[in-house]
Amino acid sequence: MQNSRARCGIVPPFLLQHLVSSGDADLADHARRTLLRDSVLRARPARPAGPATPSAAAAPSALHRSIHDAHHRATLPGALVRDEGGPASGDEAVDQAYDGLGDTWRLYDEVFGRSSIDGNGLPLVASVHYEQGYDNAFWNGAQMVFGDGDGTIFLGFTRSLDVIGHELTHGVTESTAGLTYRGQPGALNESISDVFGSLVKQHALGQSADQADWLIGADLLAPGVQGVALRSMKAPGTAYDDPRLGRDPQPADMAGYVETTDDNGGVHINSGIPNRAFHLVATAIGGNAWEAPGRIWYDVLTGSAIRPDCDFATFARLTAEAAAARFGDGSGEVQAVRQAWQTVGVSSAATVPAPTGPTPGPTPGPADDLTVRRTGGFGGLVRERTLRFDDLPDEDASRWQELVAGDRLARLADAPTHPDAFCYGVRCDAVRLDVTIPEPALEADLRDLFERTLTR
Predict the structure, then answer these.
(1) Residue-number span of the structural domain to which 171 is assigned
(2) What pLDDT does 51 receive?
(3) What is the pTM of this model?
(4) Side-chain half-sphere of 299: how many Cα atoms within 13 Å?
């Protein structure tokens, strides 16, 4: 299972791969070196950078920033060039990073009462001018790192305030929910960073939900690039369409959900779905998005109910519960949350449960189809069978209906894979279920049920 401390870069690998294949030798070289550097960083354990504690002049809960210059090398953190309270350096990247770290700290402090990203006054450290033409920015588990971009597709990564807020929010998620950086939990990890990155910008500019552009990285694209940003929370899939970058692949709802092994299971792609849900909530409620909508998302992120393997449906339910706890079950905020998740196709869990227990998911009917498959194994053989629930023996039909309506199969799907082991898959379109489970994760009763169904 992927570590929640994975390096989280703002530019997804699939986009850099497009540049490698763009036909432009310079762009391809920059992108190739960025991908290589990112792969090295992901394999390296994170180490604290810069001062471990605030200076004596700063109280533990006070803002403390230190900006370093990597001088186009990969050694971190580099030379200290601006410390908390120091004058502007005259280096645009240094001063943009300094201001962006401060704006992020102020959102969390003033709106959510959080002392820095770890809740304990962590000093904020950043390095600028990382590597040569580096097309990314990332949080490495200890500090922020910013590249200057290639100048042709990407400009300097300190230019976008929402990018700075996005990356620092990975640190918040790491110290709270610890969402696994793969599949739906990883897409939620990315989405939460987009949400609070956008809120950092809106809060700093004093923009209401209706005034905000809801773009992530709007200042990153160089002149001549056919696009407006890296991502659009309002309209996923519309941020860019450029011969060198390709077309924005983000889906706007679950009908377009992308199953892939690339990009840690599509964390930068499928994040468009919860991104749009938050935008819908914010615009339905109106006013400042960092107030009611932001508090609902923050309550879930820092609450005790969220788990590292949280999927979209669970997160939808938790946000509905958080809205009810803060504003009342019959409030407009709760209705906005429920409607938003329903609009993006994540609806079954977005209902506040009754006090007597959780609300069950939908149960498929007798005429609905169930597909069971077995893939993998040393020989790579595939077996698959599709049948209706009423074609099964009554006991097996009831068992399958219970399984596809519950969360047991989804939880088992998070189990680690094993070389040459079989994987069993279940798809039931009636409840939007499509999961693959490694055979070693299956208890004996489930393995027998799968085999009986496949061989009937």
Answers:
(1) 8-266
(2) 37
(3) 0.69
(4) 19
Domain end (from 266, 292, 326) = 266
Q: What length is written for the chain?
A: 456
CB 118 within 8 A of CB 52: no
Residue type (1 letter), 413: A
Of 226, 243, 266, which residue is a domain's last? 266
Q: Are 51 and 66 in contact (CB under 8 A)?
A: yes
Distances (CA, A) of 381 to 100, 189, 385, 429: 53, 35, 14, 24
Q: Give the position of tokens 């490495």.
A: 140
Q: Are residues 249 and 387 in the same domain?
A: no
Relative to beta strand 422-428, strand 137-139 is unpaired
Q: Confirm whether 356 is domain-assigned.
A: no
Domain membership of residue 387 (yes or no) is yes
CATH number for the domain that contains residue 177: 3.10.170.10
Of residues 245 and 254, more confidently modeled: 254
- Other Cβ atoms less than 10 A from the Cβ of 140: the count is 25
The CA distance from 432 to 363, in Å, is: 11
Q: Give the phi and the psi of residue 11 in degrees, each rounded to 5.
A: -95, 120
Query: For residue 13, which phi and psi values (nearest 5 degrees)?
Result: -60, -35
Radius of gyration for the chain, computed over Cα atoms and rounded to the nearest angstrom: 23
The confidence band for 53, taking pLDDT boundaries of 50, 70 and 90, is: very low
Residue 124 sits at φ, ψ, to 5 deg, of: -100, 120
Which residues does the annotation mark as catalytic? 167, 268
Residues 6 or more apart from 297 whose CB is under 8 A from it?
Answer: 192, 195, 196, 278, 319, 322
For residue 240, the cross-strand partners are 227
CA–CA distance, 175 with 423 (Å, rounded to integer) = 33
> Does one domain contain both 258 and 392?
no
- Rounded distance, CA 426 to CA 372, Å? 5
How many Å apart are CA 448 and CA 432, to the nearest integer? Answer: 24
User: Which pair of tokens denotes residue 403?
Assistant: 């399984």
> Has residue 65 been placed in a domain?
yes
Could you tell me which of 287, 97, 270, 286 has the C-alpha nearest to residue 189?
A: 270
